[in-house]
Amino acid sequence: MLNVETVLQEIRSWLDVHSREVVLLSFSHFLGLNQDLHTGLISTIRTIFTARLCPTTEVVTLRNLWSLGYQVIVSYEHSMVSLYSDLWPHIPYWWANKCKAEALIEEFEHRKQHGRPGNLQMTTYRII
Question: Which InterPro entries does the entry mention (predicted)?
């Protein structure tokens, strides 16, 4: 059975051999997690990724991330995030569940016309 720690270890192992890759991990929808479980999860994340975690104080460009050895940006959607400089608050993302590339592009172009969120944002997509 997989657990969160095992998956995070696998991601770290993959990053070990792909030094110029950067991953964004989004933690949200914490159904049933109490304060102690949040503390444990955050501790696990920080222990596994240690110096690879990009702090919120950094300017996020690939060049900057590479030069400083940061490979992981963690978005953690919970109030506890304010206690840790290496965890980012919720990062807004655009997600379009579209079956065709043209519809996906049209959706993202429409959203761009209404302005992008400030700071860091993610764009995710799934084309079936």
Answer: PI-PLC_domain, PLC-like_Pdiesterase_TIM-brl
